[in-house]
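Notebook entry, structure prediction.
Reason for the run: the old model in the group folder had no record of what sequence produced it. Starting over properly, with the input documented here first.
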Amino acid sequence: MLWHTGKSSRRAVRIVPSRVRDRSACRDRRRTGPAPGLRVPPLALAVLLGSVAVTVSPGWARDAAVAPKPADAPSPAEGPQALIASLRSRILAAHSATFALESWCADYKLAGDPHLVAERVPVADKPLTAAQRARLGIGPDEPVRYRRVRLACGDRVLSEADNWYVPARLTPEMNATLDTTRTPFGRVVRPLAPVRSTVEVRAPVRSAVPGPDDPLFEIDAVLSTGAGQPFCEVVETYLGGALPQASR
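New structure, fully documented this time:
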């Protein structure tokens, strides 16, 4: 393999008969060293020798650079306000609150198993407002299902959520899973490649050291399919149970 060094090719290459070249190759190398025109850059030589593994994966590199890392997150010793701000930023940057919370739970080791469970709360149906129907792009007669859940990681309740979704925009299997299991909504609708759009963020007055059931902040968001069709609106209240130092 030849890397061109910018020198004249007349100086870099000698043309000799192959048999003569073969017999004299070793003798020439011992006497004069490498040919002046065949200079191998160090990185290329390392790759050829197998000492450097080169992987081209721009998408992976971009995701790794953007994804939150435990080393970038504040430690519990920095206090609740820094943790609350970090959690809020993580949720707002994510397209799935479910997976953002599971990542948070794993990073801070809030439970042995960081996967969330959606605990249904039996409450009366809460109708959508006209503004919510407009955001979902549905008329006044379009059927909508409502559910209230508490998302738990181990014995900690991290958030409560009011969820309105359009069943006609989900698959029958998704609707059945939501009706009969405790699988979080974000995990159920993952095949839709949801995109999350924030409607509003609210910060209630909170104590200096929030308890496990104290509200930290609220987020109102709309979920749309990867093709841009809205199918759900959710109002989430994040609780002090998400903070590592919150007493149980």
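Summary: The radius of gyration is 30 Å.
The old model has been moved to the deprecated folder.
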